[in-house]
Amino acid sequence: MAGHARYTALLDACVLYPLAMTDALLSLATAGFFAAKWTTRIEDEWMRALERQRPDLVGKLGVRRDSMRDAIPDWEVPEAAWTALVKGIELPDPDDVHVLAAAIAGHADCIVSANLKDFPSAVLLEYGIEAVDPDTFMINQWDLDPVGVIAAFKRMRERRKKPQSSPDEFADALELAGLPMTAGRLRAASELI
């Protein structure tokens, strides 16, 4: 599979689980900041985790999954591309080996994950990949192009119709989703979003 011309990030299941975090990441990806990748196994993982926490959502997450796929048409790192790589990888949590294998197969520059301890730098450096927490990842995008990121977040906030949120409520939702630095930047730029 050919590499992507843009910076490529493999999104771990833990960052696709919280809706506000997922929306923020995919909003930046659709705005052209990076190429977002994941696998069907990662999809299954975030969906099962959400269904465990919210049994009322069992069987109802297909619309969200399909919307994510529609937003990022080149999202998938196919299973056939990463399964052969699994055998040669060792990580603290064997359940995360497929994530690194998919990052390698998907020509990712980084893995965006809230579980950085599961992706030791010494192992990832062998493959030219780094692990970055989602809040730092978004701040890095912000630092590269503040106007573009503010515009992407403004579009994201405008999509929130039920309920429509003020800039402060929008920032609060992102903070609650685990993005305190991003929320702080949004509060500082509230007149622009």
Summarize it.
The chain is of the alpha/beta class and 193 residues long.
Q: What's the CATH architecture of the largest domain?
A: 3-Layer(aba) Sandwich
Cα-to-Cα separation, first versus last residue: 38 Å
CATH topology of the largest domain: Rossmann fold
Secondary-structure element order, as H and E? EHHEHHHHEHEHHHH
Largest sheet features: 4 strands, parallel
How many DSSP H or I helices? 11
Record the strand order, biggest sheet: 2-1-3-4
Helical content band:
40-55%
CA-based gyration radius: 16 Å
In the CATH scheme, the class of the largest domain would be Alpha Beta
Features:
193 residues, alpha/beta, Rossmann fold, four-stranded parallel beta sheet, 4 strands, globular
Model description:
The chain has 11 helices and 4 strands; from the N terminus they run βααβααααβαβαααα. The chain has 193 residues and is of the alpha/beta class. A 4-stranded parallel β-sheet has the order 2-1-3-4, sandwiched between helices.
List the helices and strands and how they pair.
Layout: E1 8-11, H1 13-16, H2 19-30, E2 35-37, H3 40-53, H4 62-71, H5 79-82, H6 97-105, E3 110-112, H7 121-125, E4 130-132, H8 134-144, H9 146-159, H10 167-176, H11 180-188
Parallel strand pairs: 1-2, 1-3, 3-4
Helix pairs in contact: 2-9, 8-9, 8-11, 10-11
